[in-house]
TrEMBL record, chain A:
Protein name: Glycosyl transferase family 2
Organism lineage: Bacteria, Bacillati, Bacillota, Clostridia, Lachnospirales
CDD domains xrefs: DPM_DPG-synthase_like
PANTHER family per UniProt: RFBJ PROTEIN, UNDECAPRENYL-PHOSPHATE 4-DEOXY-4-FORMAMIDO-L-ARABINOSE TRANSFERASE-RELATED
SUPFAM superfamilies xrefs: Nucleotide-diphospho-sugar transferases (SSF53448)
Organism: Lacrimispora algidixylanolytica
Pfam families on file: Glycos_transf_2
From TrEMBL, chain B:
The keyword Transcription is annotated on this UniProt entry: no
Transmembrane parts of this sequence: 6-22, 34-54, 66-84
One term of GO molecular function: transferase activity
The protein's name: Glycosyl transferase
Keywords for the protein's UniProt record, in alphabetical order: Membrane, Transferase, Transmembrane, Transmembrane helix
Domain of life where this protein originates: Bacteria
Pfam families to which the protein is assigned, alphabetical: DUF2304 (PF10066)
InterPro entries assigned to the protein according to its UniProt record, in alphabetical order: DUF2304 (IPR019277)
Length: 232, 123
């Protein structure tokens, strides 16, 4: 087993951002391994990566974030990485926080979340209201307070990598976190700063965001409670 | 129920059965999947030919009228069908995802091996 961290970068039509994001990781943090998961992009994301000879896995069709991220964790599982981190290809996440997250992992946690609200208070906006609701739901069902459940910057231990790689219904979403906490995973948060997405469009318009919140709440509060964990 | 309506119902259900059978034969549907539709069509024919049968069952289960019984019964069967269909689609989706992921990962692995071979041959 390598002691290295694998940075999983799911990318779907990120031609505008990928060069800056991945380039930043590779140049400034050569101690981490990385893999780009090209989720069936229709723009030239793949060509850009090929041109730089970056390590890339091409999914022939679009699977969505969950499927793409799972591919990354399968890769991590095959190669026996100890830690894997989800790192968005759109430039929201900063690579400088990977090392502190790894150090936190070394203390024996299963999941470390890069959280925007450990020290800072959440601003009062509609979006943060959704975040509060999810925090509340996770706290209600597990008794653990997760300050930033929607943060996409999460690091997983070897044990979790195996579960994610083999499992069905292991999307990189808050409901999976709540499910894993309920089944004994130790979760820690460390404070991070995230950037706004600079180029390209986010799929999070108000309607999508509301649907997403509804689904997550329903899943955390109801569906996850009658899920059976398969023991492999 | 008027005589004409009954005739129409009988004709429609028989035509539907024939049509389904024809489609099943031509579309090479798996037999176990077609069984449901054949049974369903036959049931329609049965009820239209012998409405007394529906009346009898309706009386037995205690529904208010035969029409209510038919509606409830059909909706229930179709609901079950939709549910199992949903389960099946989920499983299919999972398999497709698994296939795509394995394919992509294997391709990457092969490429890496090739590169390694290339480099070791050069030395």
């Amino acid at each position: 087993m390598t002691d290295k961290v694998l940075v999983v970068i799911p990318a779907y039509n990120e031609a505008l951002n990928i060069e800056r994001v991945v380039g930043g990781v590779i140049e400034n943090y050569p101690m981490f391994d990385y893999v780009i998961i090209n989720d069936g992009s229709t723009d030239n994301t793949a060509e850009i990566c090929r041109k730089h000879k970056w390590r890339i896995i091409d999914l022939p069709v679009n699977l969505g974030l969950a499927g793409a991220f799972q591919t990354g964790l399968k890769y991590a599982h095959r190669r026996g990485y100890r830690y894997a981190i989800q790192f968005d290809g759109d430039g929201q996440h900063r690579a400088e926080y990977i090392l502190p997250m790894k150090e936190k992992m070394d203390e024996g946690y299963d999941i470390v979340i890069g959280s925007r609200f450990v020290t800072d208070k959440k601003p009062h906006s509609i979006r943060m209201f959704g975040s509060r609701l999810l925090s509340g739901a996770i706290w209600f069902t597990t008794g653990v307070m997760v300050n930033d459940p929607t943060s996409g910057m999460r690091m997983f231990s070897h044990k979790m990598i195996k579960e994610f790689a083999d499992g069905l219904n292991y999307g990189p979403e808050p409901d999976t976190i709540s499910y894993l906490i309920r089944h004994g995973a130790n979760v820690a948060e460390i404070p991070v700063v995230m950037d706004e997405r600079i180029l390209g469009e986010s799929y999070l318009n108000p309607l999508n965001a509301a649907t997403y919140m509804g689904k997550m709440l329903f899943s955390i509060l109801l569906v996850q409670s009658f899920r059976i964990r398969s023991r492999r | 129920m008027t005589f004409l309506l009954r005739c129409v119902l009988v004709c429609v259900s028989i035509l539907l059965t024939l049509y389904l059978l024809r489609r099943i034969r031509h579309s090479k549907m798996k037999i176990e999947d077609s069984i449901f539709w054949v049974m369903f069509a036959l049931l329609l024919v049965l009820f239209s030919l012998f409405p007394k049968l529906a009346d009898f069952i309706s009386g037995m289960v205690g529904t208010y009228s035969t029409a209510n019984f038919i509606f409830t019964f059909m909706i229930f069967i179709l609901l079950l069908k939709v549910f199992f269909q949903s389960v099946k689609i989920s499983q299919l989706e999972r398999r497709v995802t698994e296939l795509i992921q394995t394919f992509a990962l294997d391709k990457e692995e092969d490429k890496e091996k090739e590169e390694l071979n290339y480099e070791s041959n050069r030395e």
